[in-house]
Amino acid sequence: MWADGDHRRVPGDKEPQLHSRPGHRGTRTMLPLLLLLLPAARGTVVTVGPEPALTQDPRLEMVTTASTFVLDQPRCVFQNYSDAVIWLVVTNDKGAFNNSMKPGTSKTAFQKFPDEVSAYMTLNVTLPSYPCPKPAGDITVLRVGSETSCAKDMSRPTCNGPLPGPGPYWVKFLALDDSGPVAETKWSMPIMLRTAQPASNISTGSGYRDGMIAITTILSILFAILLAALLAMLVFCGSESCGSSTFSKAESVSVRRYNTHHVYDQPCARL
Asked: How far, in Å, CA of 160 to CA of 185, rounded?
């Protein structure tokens, strides 16, 4: 047995592991991890504000139609991101969209939704368009799906075109600056649009049928009376007494000429 530093070794022991640089092992392993986390921290997207929702403004009717719906504007939500552009993301599969997607590309074009892409980006505005607080009395809403002129125009991939079906749809607001996405809202609740009621669903109860039968009967009786009156008029007018009158030829009137003999037979008066 012999001494090796402060460690006593016996024959058969392995040679001790020598480190070129002394130090704590935990410190050496944490440094690369921190370096990896720094880029991720710089690209973090902050979740802000309430999730988008259909407007509850009582002054508006038809919040949803067969191809549009109306959202409240995101007021007082992105006020800490004055340099960002705020976009609305619309999707029929919220799991298919990620924040690395960019607006105005073939991967987020409205004209390819929903057959080729699952989400598109539209209604881009800067923060001054959403002042906080909102002016009193203003109707601060967004109608999604209101543009028809660009629905098939591939040069306008960010078109706010009519929605192609009843849904469901999910939406969120996403703020982008020069470096990329910086803030976002949560996804909305699923939004369903109106659908035309099938003819088979129209009520045809006994009351409806009875009313239609009564109206049809009355109209039939009135038509029969009118037809009978018309036939009677035709028969009556076919006889000689209808619309005819007898005119006798006026007798010729002769006028005699009378001479006033007492004027012409008298000799002229002599002076």
From this structure: 19
